[in-house]
Amino acid sequence: MPRTRYALDTPNLFRVGEESLDVTSTGKQRVAMDRLGIHAEAGDWCWIGKIPQPPADVLQAAGNPRLRPARLPPLSMIGVVLGAPFMPLLMLLRLLSDAEEAVKRSLDRKEEKEQRRAKKEEDKRRDAIIAQRDLDNVFDGNWHGNAGQFLLRWYTHSTHHERMLLATQEGIVLAAPPKRVSVGREKHMQVVARLPASEATLVDPFSGEFETRILLIRFRDGSWLRVDTEELRSDLHMYVLRQPLADS
């Protein structure tokens, strides 16, 4: 099967006219779009799950790419070490907060208890659908599909663990710092990959039925890659739900 090639770091490839509307809700997203010179319909920071180990022949054919993000920079590790003595206190505060929440729940009115029970049932149904559709995996499992091939290059594009995903009129833009940083991700980021609308689209696998962080980048060949957004039911989810349904 011929492999689809994706343009990387190509300036102005997907520049949109000045009439495009920026509907993102946070200042960080606007800063990102201003910095990149991109007018997007929606955007949010996102990440992917752990990439499974590909078969040896697939890995070799791809040039033995990196499959994990870079480790935290040394300064961040120092911060973790310095913060370690405070972890027991934070855990105690968390336990006290959970206990207080449990007491409050026990005093809830009947209507509130019914709502909580309904929410639990909804969560169970959502989790069952996730398992049924294999959405608990990072991609559809076909390493030779477009999604699998793109996933193999994910950390070659950038060793940072997150991506700013922007939906434009021309397609999907992914931006990130070239290397992993602990702070200032917006300041250091640059475009690392572009997926034209003819090659890939964003999909909410639940069509808005559940409030989740899950989105799929679905490729033209039907393969898909799961991303999790930083915001619950993010602007990207709302953008996807506003789009007309594609013919199947």
Summary of the model, kept short:
This protein is α+β, with helices and mostly antiparallel strands. The protein has helices at residues 27-36, 56-61, 74-83, 87-106, 110-132, 146-152, 154-157, 185-188, 235-242, and strands spanning 42-47, 163-167, 171-176, 190-196, 200-203, 214-219, 224-229. It is built from nine helices and seven strands, in the order αβααααααββαββββα.
Describe the structure in your own words.
By secondary structure, this protein is of the alpha+beta class. The chain has nine helices and seven strands. The protein has helices at 27-36, 56-61, 74-83, 87-106, 110-132, 146-152, 154-157, 185-188, 235-242; strands at 42-47, 163-167, 171-176, 190-196, 200-203, 214-219, 224-229. A seven-stranded antiparallel beta sheet has the order 4-3-2-1-7-6-5. Strand 2 and strand 3 (171-176) form a beta hairpin. The chain is globular and about 60 Å long. 29% of the residues are buried.
In terms of topology, how is this protein built?
Elements: H1 27-36, E1 42-47, H2 56-61, H3 74-83, H4 87-106, H5 110-132, H6 146-152, H7 154-157, E2 163-167, E3 171-176, H8 185-188, E4 190-196, E5 200-203, E6 214-219, E7 224-229, H9 235-242
Antiparallel strand pairs: 1-2, 1-7, 2-3, 3-4, 5-6, 6-7
